[in-house]
Amino acid sequence: MLQVNKPTAEINRAIGDAEESSAQTLSTFVGMIRRQLPTMLAIVSACLIVALLYLFTAAPRYSSTASIVIDTRKVQLFQSQSGLGDVAIDSATVETQVEILKSENISLTVIRDLHLIDDPEFAGGGGGFLGAVLSSVTGLGGHLASEFELTRGALQRFESNRTVRRVGLSYVMEIGFTSYDSQKAARIANAIADAYIVDQLEAKYQATRRASVWLQDRIKELRTQASTAQKAVVDFKSANNIVDTGKGLMNQQQLTEVNTQLISARTASAEAKARLNRMNDMLKQEIPDASVADALKNETIIKLRGQYVDIASKEAIWSAKYGSEHLAAVNLRRQMAEIKRNITDELKRIQESYKSDYDIAMTREEAIKSSLNNIVSESQLTNRAQIQLRELESNAQSYQAMYDNFLQRYMESVQQQSFPITEARVISTATTPLVKSYPKTLIVLAVALLGGLILSLGAAMARELTDKVFRTTSQVEEALGTNCIAILPALGDAAGQSVLAGKFSKKADGPRPNLLRYVVDNPLSRFAEAVRSLKVAVDLNSIVRENRVLAVTSTLPDEGKSTLSTNLAQLMAHGGARVILVDSDLRNPSLSRALVPDAKCGLVDIVAQKMRLEDVLTVDPETGLSILPAGTSSKLLHTNEILASKAMRDLVGLLRSKFDYVVLDMPPMAPVVDVRVTTSFVDSYVFVVEWAKTNTDLIVHNLRGAPEIQDKLLGVVLNKADLNVLARYESYHGRYDSKYYARYGYTED
User: Fold this and answer.
1) FRET pair for 631, CA 20 to 30 Å: which of 65, 325, 355, 709?
2) Rounded to 5 degrees, what are φ and ψ at 86?
3) d(CA 315, CA 324)
4) DSSP at 289
């Protein structure tokens, strides 16, 4: 297959994409750490605090270790002792010794020698603060434990604090003990080693003493049995005339030779039969083919076949030229028939020769078989005698070997009884530890730190995965496919109130700011600057299409749409433009109640042609902003019909002719459908989303359900943002806002 190499530019592009993907993954991970840093620090700090509390409250414990080795040189020196209870040193043997060290026999010996049942650490609740509490609680019960109960309790605590292990694949075993007293830990570890060695010496002494008594009686019996078995072998050979040539019995050699001859005779018979069968097959042919003739290597057949072929060729020529009844053709066919008879006679002669060879081979084979049967029948008697002879010889050898072995063991046991020795010896005694072994401060702190990091990362990932709210401009652009044109900061204590809590008046002297006049009262605030950015977006969009009628809406109530629409209208009016603010939330005209609480007529009355526009407008004397309230405060059932009416479209057309900007404060989209009927007269929509609160799925669902609004969507405004928290999501907000705003005279919100 032809292989086409990729261009260098394509390879570089692929490498660049891979590097970009890696960089993006790293950036995402770093961003998650930055956003969830307070939570992660809290979890890690909590884990470290728990670890420190544990370190301060846990009673220190000390461990001391003694080492024992199984000396292989002693094992080699007294290797013959293995029959008296010792075994060869291998991995299983060392593991067995480890289990012996862990046995209750060794533990009870140490407890008895050191009087540990009188030690509070073993008889009471244990050492340390917790042990003292348990001991006092147990003492209040008034129950006096028996000696057996004290011993079993001490044994249980003893085994829980003792460790025995093999060092790698060596013959060294380490005995460790942990106690609240460092000197006690060393004393008990050494006592375990001493108890093990004494136990081994005692076991060997008892084994050799019992073995020497038993071996004396056994040796006498084996001596008599070995002598009797050897005499039986000699008598049996003489009675059965068994002669051994050194290479085996004579009849066995004859049987081997005759069997070889029989195999050769069978091979010759098979060859003769194959030749005869082949000749029988050739006789069935009229004329043997050339390959068969050559295989027979018979000159007569080869010559006759050549003549037959020549005459057949001539006969074919004559028949073709003069016809098959021509005299010459008939003569040639007679000659061909004569040659056939001659060839057949020659083949029959060869067949008789092959048949004679086959008969001779079969006769020889039958003779050899008869001879073999005779030899086999003669050897059967000898074989039966030989089986019995082998049994007698085996018994004689076994008795002699057992006698020699037991005699040697008896001599060794006599020596060992006077000089017992064990292969184990102490190579390192336990010393008083200077540093506590438990709890290990660095390990506990490291585990706490590592566990805290793992838990914090898990919590951070869980919070990220479950964070279904908008916090950054990139999230808005990715989820909604539109621009985030402004981020409004939360306004201190007022951010927690209803956004319509203020009155349409100048800033009061109290501590709470008037949210509805914030851009007028605080023109150099970051909130005002964010509203200016929204005003710039409106003006820039006017270059593409007419953008004079603006509708401000949101998904849910209390997201700040009325506050934004009021401040945006006041900002435009304060800049010298002719602006009218229309309260189009007919279901809940809260903006009208806040700005013009005394108004009795409004938008509803104008649409119903009950009032004129000039009679219901209210003008702010400071900014020149015109306000059109909703009108009646009674509950309206079909507000969407009012907003979709021709009178409403005519009213908006009239407002276009009289004002530079028309700002409509619309109801939220999720509870009511009023906003969807206004697309015929609204130029652009501004969608307000409460920062880090409104669910993204709800917002996406509402916007996708209203494509006509989404087509005219100017952008999204994130409201009530905590800039300190936002800096962890988009670092440039906190990095640049706080650092550079003050240089231009802006104040903190």
Assistant:
1) 709
2) -85, 155
3) 8
4) -
Indicate whether 605 and 735 sit together in one domain. yes
Instruction: For residue 128, give Cα distances in angstroms to 58, 120, 131.
Output: 8, 11, 5
Q: Which residue has the tokens 């909604």?
A: 480
Phi-psi region of 694 (alpha: psi -120 to 50; beta: other; left: phi over 0): beta
Identify which of 642, 716, 651 has the alpha carbon closest to the alpha carbon of residue 681: 651
Count of structural domains within the chain? 3
Sequence-distant (6+) residues with CB within 8 A of 103 are none
pLDDT tens profile 331-356: 888 888 888 888 777 777 877 887 88
Which residue type, as a one-letter code, is found at position 691? Answer: W
Cis check: omega of the bond before 439, within 30 degrees of 0: yes
Q: In 3-state terms, what secondary structure has residue 663? A: strand
How far, in Å, CA of 690 to CA of 719, rounded? 5
In sequence order, what are the beta bridge partners of 747?
Answer: 525
CB of 702 within 8 A of CB of 620? no
Tokens 């000089």, residue located: 419
pLDDT digits (tens, 9 = 90+) for 419-465: 566 778 888 898 988 888 888 888 989 999 999 999 999 988 888 88
**Residue 579 in 3-state DSSP?**
strand
530 Cβ neighbours under 8 A, 6+ residues apart = 486, 487, 488, 489
> Distance (Å, rounded) from C-alpha 67 to C-alpha 183?
17
pTM of this structure: 0.54
Regarding whether 690 and 589 lie in a shared domain, the answer is yes
With beta carbons less than 8 A apart as the criterion, state whether 46 and 39 touch: no
SS3 for 691?
coil
Indicate if the alpha-carbon torsion angle 544, 546, 547, 550 is positive or negative.
Answer: negative
Beta pairing, strands 618-619 & 579-583: unpaired
Which domain-ending residue is among 436, 465, 494?
465
The amino acid present at 37, given as its one-letter code, is L
Range(s) of the domain holding residue 26: 8-57+450-465
